[in-house]
Amino acid sequence: MGSVNAISKPTPVNPRLSSLPGESFPVCIIGLGLIGGSLMRDLAAAGWPVFGWNRSAHTVKVANRSGFDVSGDLDATLRRAEAEKALVVLGVPMPALPRMLEAIAQHAPSVGFTDVTSVKAEVHELVEQHGLTDRFVGGHPMAGTANSGWDATMSGLFDGAVWVITYDNAKNRGQRGARLWLDTWRRTVQMAEAVGAAVVPTVARRHDSAVARISHLPHVLAEALAVTGDMGGPLSLTLAATSFRDGTRVAGTEPELVRAMCENNREALVKALDEALALLQKAREDIASPGQDLHRLATEGHAARMRFEARAGRKVKDAPRRPIIRVQPGAPGWTDQLSSAESMGAQIGIF
Amino acid sequence: MGSVNAISKPTPVNPRLSSLPGESFPVCIIGLGLIGGSLMRDLAAAGWPVFGWNRSAHTVKVANRSGFDVSGDLDATLRRAEAEKALVVLGVPMPALPRMLEAIAQHAPSVGFTDVTSVKAEVHELVEQHGLTDRFVGGHPMAGTANSGWDATMSGLFDGAVWVITYDNAKNRGQRGARLWLDTWRRTVQMAEAVGAAVVPTVARRHDSAVARISHLPHVLAEALAVTGDMGGPLSLTLAATSFRDGTRVAGTEPELVRAMCENNREALVKALDEALALLQKAREDIASPGQDLHRLATEGHAARMRFEARAGRKVKDAPRRPIIRVQPGAPGWTDQLSSAESMGAQIGIF
């Protein structure tokens, strides 16, 4: 009986954070890969009206068979988004974005939209070039697996994950733009919360700088470690144990994915890499000089890891330990609140 | 009934590899930390005659209470090893080795001995300086946890682990030295096999070069990554997910342990670090130049990780996939066999 009720009257996945429990709005997802497709699954499960488009006829067929409202006609899908005043979510990879922005400008001229790509400054620039800044909010759900495509989609992918939402366009909007943009921003937050994510606000460039440090740099270091270990030949690989295994794990990522994420964030990654190189050069000098020691690097690295551990693994559902700041979109001083939240790496909720 | 039999008639942990099933000999373990103490547990459990010494009176008391044959008198313990023709295992850390070598020269003048420290060239030099090369075989069980001391000891620590055994001293021994050294080498292998380890032969310098690449370099890179991520402030740590978590895991190791392992292997670590730095500098140039790409590093790193995965996780008990080469200590050409095994990173067994 309980399960019948659950089906007939869907409840939000994360009612504690949704500002308006039970309120939903239509969402149109363009591109149903791992992120877009998993988002569709979770929104549908939460009872939200959700429909979408995918390029592959096979995916359209498979998704339809599973009961999802998916079309292979991009223009018609966007016209429907416009008619139903849906929030459009761009789930396509970076190279496909320009074409999608053109289609949005043409077929969905008045609805807000967001994206899910892993860099944000370049996306904001593209959106600006297409004159769509008034109704765009950048997004980056920090979730994923090594797999991609509709077949890799899953329920619960975003539960407890951080979902970065940009606020670059919060200021200097015209009156019409202000209302539409604020509505888009609020809806993007509500949608992320509905699938259990923890919303963290940033501006695009600070997001890109952060992910360069904690996501792209780890990939570059892992590749270099894997190659250096391998250059030691079979003996090295036989002796390799957990420290090498952990340090090279992300070198198992498809090389083209590593290239795409690193090459889309060149400026920030060069800066992070230069900082790491300076530390490693210093370590090299210290190790080469018997009078020197590694005390400072080992101590600071250990302290940094401890700080990370103190913050990490904070799932929304099991821990209130990450600070949560409540903001009212558009209220006086609200962007200062977002800026405060950003500098603390804090989660936000809206009211 | 079966368990009574098992207790009254101990069988080797790893009979498949022991050349002479059931054969055991006295083992004297000097230093009962994580490695030495766990070795004592496993040998005792396998029914081997094993006794030892520890500096801490508390450890002696606790170990005795648990039924282990442990003394706090170093000289007497070594005299007993001499009288019982035991294999002596030095389980003390590097700084304590010189004193132990003096004690062995004085109180156990004719028995063979091995060690368990994580670098080998420096130990071989120390042994040479004490004139004990004729009866020394270097060892390095690639097993451990983040903890240390008798309280951290456990059963089964070596089961499936690689136990490196050096053969630097296999040649150019005098006739007396040859027999004693061969006997020490054979016993060291048998003891490692008795606790379930996979024996891999190397010469000391190649061991040190390999562990610099696959154990010490990962620590240095992890420290640098942790610091660089942390320099991004709270936002970076909030966005950090699995790639940062895995890449910095070993930065959680006690800084003094990291220092000790890196500073004891300076020469080999500088070489490994220089190779990694060259790869990272090239990556930095490629990322900074929009016309360049990361194709080569990403592809080679991925291939290296795949090769590691293809070899790794091969527990002795569940996989014959790591090549096993059978050698007869002292037979014509046997060091060539060891050299072949080393270049393949192969496991050996003796007959």
How would you explain this protein's 3D organization?
Chains A, B: GO terms for molecular function: NAD+ binding; prephenate dehydrogenase (NAD+) activity; prephenate dehydrogenase (NADP+) activity. Chains A, B: Keywords: Oxidoreductase. Chains A, B: Belongs to the prephenate/arogenate dehydrogenase family. The structure is a homodimer of 351-residue chains. With 351 residues, chain A is α/β, with parallel strands linked by helices. Chain A has helices spanning 2-8, 34-45, 57-65, 74-83, 97-107, 121-129, 175-194, 204-230, 233-239, 242-248, 255-263, 266-288, 295-311, 334-344, and strands spanning 27-30, 50-53, 69-71, 87-90, 113-115, 136-137, 139-141, 162-166, 198-202, 324-327, 347-350. In chain A, the strands form three sheets. The first copy, chain A, has a six-stranded parallel β-sheet, sandwiched between helices. Chain A has a three-stranded mixed β-sheet with strand order 7-8-9. Chains A and B meet through helix 8, helix 9, helix 10, helix 11 and helix 12 of A and helix 8, helix 9, helix 10, helix 11 and helix 12 of B.
Radius of gyration of chain A: 22 Å
CATH architecture descriptor of the largest domain in chain A: 3-Layer(aba) Sandwich
Kindly report the greatest chain-chain contact and the residue count on each side: A-B, 98 and 98 residues
At the first level of CATH, the class of the largest domain in chain A is: Alpha Beta
Uncertain segments of chain A are 1-21, 314-320
Element string of chain A (H = helix, E = strand): HEHEHEHEHEHEEEHEHHHHHHEHE
Describe the sheet with the most strands of chain A: 6 strands, parallel
Topology, number of strands of chain A: 11
**Distance N terminus to C terminus of chain A?**
33 Å
Strand order of the largest sheet of chain A: 3-2-1-4-5-6
Q: Oligomeric form of this entry?
A: homodimer
Mean pLDDT of chain A: 89
| The CATH fourth-level homologous superfamily of the largest domain in chain A | NAD(P)-binding Rossmann-like Domain
Helical amount of chain A: 40-55%
Strand percentage of chain A lies at 5-15%
Shape of chain A: globular
> Structural class, from secondary structure content of chain A?
alpha/beta
